[in-house]
Amino acid sequence: MISTRSRRLSAALAVGAIFAVGGCSKLGSPVDRAVEDAGANSLMHAGATIHAAGDPVRAISYYQEALQLSVNDPAILLALAHALSDAGDHEGAIIAFDRAIDAGADDADTLRGIGNALMAINRPEIALPKLQQAVIMQPSPAGFNSLGVAYDALGQAEIAQKSYREGLALTPSHIGLANNLALSLALSGNTGQAIEILEELVMEPGSSAANRQSLALAYGLSGDYVRAEEIGREDLDEQSVIMNISYYRTLEAMEDHARKVAILGILRSNRTPNAVGSVDPR
Question: Dihedral of the CA atoms 62, 63, 64, 70 (nearest 10)?
Answer without folding.
Answer: 120
